[in-house]
Amino acid sequence: MPRRVSAVVLCLMVMHFGSALDAQTITASPVESMWTVDGPQDITADGKFWYVTDDYTSRILLFPIGAGIAKSIGHIGNGDGEFLHPAGAEIFDGKLVVLDNLNNRVQVLSLDGILFSSFPLPPSLAQPLKYCLSRQGHLFINDPTSGFLVTEYDLHGHRLKSFGKLKREVGHTSLRDLNDAEVGTNSAWLSVDDDENIYAAFLARPTVHRYSADGKLQYQIELAGEGADDLAAASLGRVTAAQFTHMHVRSAAVTLVTLDIAVDQARSTGYVLGGNNRVYRFDLRSGQDRNSLKIEAPLLRNGSSPKMLKFKVARGRGYFLPLYSSGVYTSLLP
Amino acid sequence: MFLFGHTQGKASLVASGIGFLACLLGISAFVYASSSPYHGPGYRAGDRIPVLYSRRLWFRKPLPIGDTPTKMLFYMSSPTPQNLQQIIYAAYLVRKTQETPISFSLVTRGQIREISRMQGGGELPFPVIVDKDNSIARQAHIREGEDTFLVFDRKGVISFASPLGLESPEDLRELWELHTQGSIQFSEAHRDAEMQVGRHFPDVILANITTGTTTDSSHLINDSQHRFLVFTAECPVCSLESSMTGIAANHDAVPIFSSHFSTSLLKELVLRKHVQVAVYSAEGELSGLENLYSSHSTFENAGVVIDVDASGVIMAINPIPLS
Q: Of the spans A236-245, B172-181, B228-237, which averages the highest pLDDT?
C-alpha cells in the first residue's frame, strides 16, 4: 500500500488542486479526468493511469492521468485474467495484484492484464472483502471465519500468520461457529504502514485497532470528534438511509459505520472515512483522536452531494472515490 | 444327522441374517447417499458437469435444457429479490434475442410461488424445472441451499461457474453478450441518463398494468401532467413494495415501470396496495432513461423522478429516495 500511495503522490505532484479548507471542513475537488464507474470498489495509480476496480462489470478500468485513452483489464469469467466481482487491485513491484473476490483467488498480473500467478483464498471470506497490501508484498485479509481478525499471506499464497482476537457473543465456545452477526461485528477495513503495523477500522462500530507487525494488539480507540454521535447511532442501527452509506448484501441493506481506513506515516496520522461523509483522524503512535472533517464537494448534476466510498491518503492529501459518481476527488487533509 | 441338520439350518439362518444385514446396509448406504447434501468443491472453468436427469435410477430422463451450443443453467435455492430479478432479466434476454445459440434453464429448489405465477402468466420463455427432492442438486454437485450459475457446452464442459448464482443482471448481460456476439460491449449508461436533460421524453408504448390498454407516452404529457416516476433501479424487485406504497400515496405523477419488470408481480402489487392511479409498464426500452444493465438509480434509489415541460422536454432528473 505505501508503494501504491507513493505512486499516487508521484503521479499527482505535477497536478495542482485548489482546495479550500478549515479545521472542520474539507472541500474535495474533482480531478480533471472524469469517468463513470458503475460499481467502484477501489482505486490505485501508477503515474500513468488510475486503476479503478469495478465490481459491477468485473473489470479493472484504467483512466489516464492527464491526456490518454481509457482502457480496461479483464471481464467476467473464471479464466486467467478474468474476474468475478473483484474487490480491489493494488500495484506491487510493477505488477497488478487483483483480489478476484467471487473466484476466491488473488491474481498477480502484468499492467496489461497478463497473468503471472494466482493463488486461492478461503471460500468463506466475509463480504465485502477487506484487505491491504504492505510495501513488503504481504497481503492482509480480514477473515473472521478463520477464528482471527486478520490473516497474512505472501504473494505465493502461503499463509504466514493469523492474529487479532474476535469479539464474540456470550455462550460461544468454538472459534469457528461465528454467526452472521459476529462476522459483521468483526468485519474491518485494513490499512498497513511501512513497518507493517496493521490498522483495522470496523464496519459496524466506530472502533479502530492497531496491531504490531507480530500481531499484538497495541491500542484500541473509539472514533471521536464532531459527527461521532452519528457513528454511534449508526452502529446501533438508528439512522435513516439518507444519512449513511448502505451496502446491499444479498437481500439486506447494511449500514456502514466506516467505509475505509488509510494511514499517512509521514504525518503520523490515521484517517477513517465514516459512512456519514466525514473523515475521522487519529494519531498513529498514540491512538489519540484528532478532530473530524466534513467532506464537501461540488453538487452533482442531479443536485445531490457525492458520497465518498473509498479513499487513499498520501502526504496530507486525500484521494476520494465517490459512490456512483464520476472521477476522483482530492483535497488536502490537515 | 439331527445335529448336522440343526447346524446346517443354523448356518443357513446366519447366512440369511448376514445377507439381510448386507442388504439393509446397502439400502441404508443408498438412502444416505441420496439424502446427504454434497459438500464437495464448487465448479471451475474446464470442469465437466454430468448429464442431469429429472429422476434418479427409475423413470429417469435427461433434463430438458436445450440442445444449443451454449447452455446456461441457473440453480435457484431461494427466491431472494435478487434471484427473482435475474429471472425476470433472463426472460427479457431470451425474448429479445432471436435464434440465440444459448438455451437458458432454471432449476428451482422446490416449488416457488413467484416463479409459478410468472410461468402461469407466460412470462418465462424457458424451461423451469422443480427439484423437489434435491436430486438434481446432488447430481450437479450443487451444495445444499446455495445458488449456482453454470455456463457449459454440449459436452458439459463448463466455461463459467458462479458459486453464488448471479450477483447482478450485469453478470447475465455480459455472459449473454459474450456467447452471442463473441465480446462484451460496455456502456456509459449512468452518464447517458444525466445527458437526457434537455431532450424529449422517449416516445414509447405504455401498457396500463390493470386494464392492459396501451397508450403512447407522448399522450400522457399535457398541461396538467408534467412529472413521471420512472422505475429503473438496479434491483427493482428489491424496492418494488416500497415503490408501490409511494405510488399509492402520490397522485401527482405518472408511474412508469421499465419493460423488464414482471407484469404479473406489478399487477398483484397494484391490487394489494390499492393503487388508484394508472400504473404503466413500458413495452419498449425507455431509451436513455433506463439501461438494462445499469441505471441512474443505485442502491439508494428506487427510480427517477422526471420533470418535463408542456412540450415533453426533460427539465430535470432526480433520484427517488428509498422510503
A: B172-181
Long-range contacts at A139-147 (CB < 8 A, ≥ 24 apart): A139/A97, A139/A106, A140/A190, A140/A192, A140/A198, A141/A190, A142/A186, A142/A187, A142/A188, A142/A189, A142/A190, A142/A200, A144/A178, A144/A182, A144/A183, A144/A186, A144/A187, A145/A176, A145/A178, A145/A183, A146/A122, A147/A175, A147/A176
> Nearest Cα to A117, choosing from A67, A68, A155?
A155
- Is pTM beyond 0.80? Reply is no
- Other beta carbons less than 10 A from residue B124's beta carbon: 21
Report CB contact under 8 Å: B194, A302.
yes
For the stretch A138-157, pLDDT in tens is: 999 999 888 899 999 999 99
Q: What gap in Å lies between CA A107 and CA A78, rounded to an integer? A: 11
User: How many Å apart are CA A67 and CA A49, to the nearest integer?
Assistant: 10
The whole-number pLDDT of residue A184 equals 81
Residue B190 confidence (pLDDT): 47
* Three-class DSSP labels, B64-102: CCCCCCEEEEEEECCCCHHHHHHHHHHHHHHHHCCCCCE
- pLDDT class of A75 with cuts at 50, 70, 90: very high
Residue of chain B minimizing CA distance to A247: B299
Residues in chain B closer than 8 A to A61 (CB atoms) = none
Average predicted confidence (pLDDT) for chain A: 83
Hey, are the CB atoms on A246 and B189 less than 8 Å from each other? Answer: no
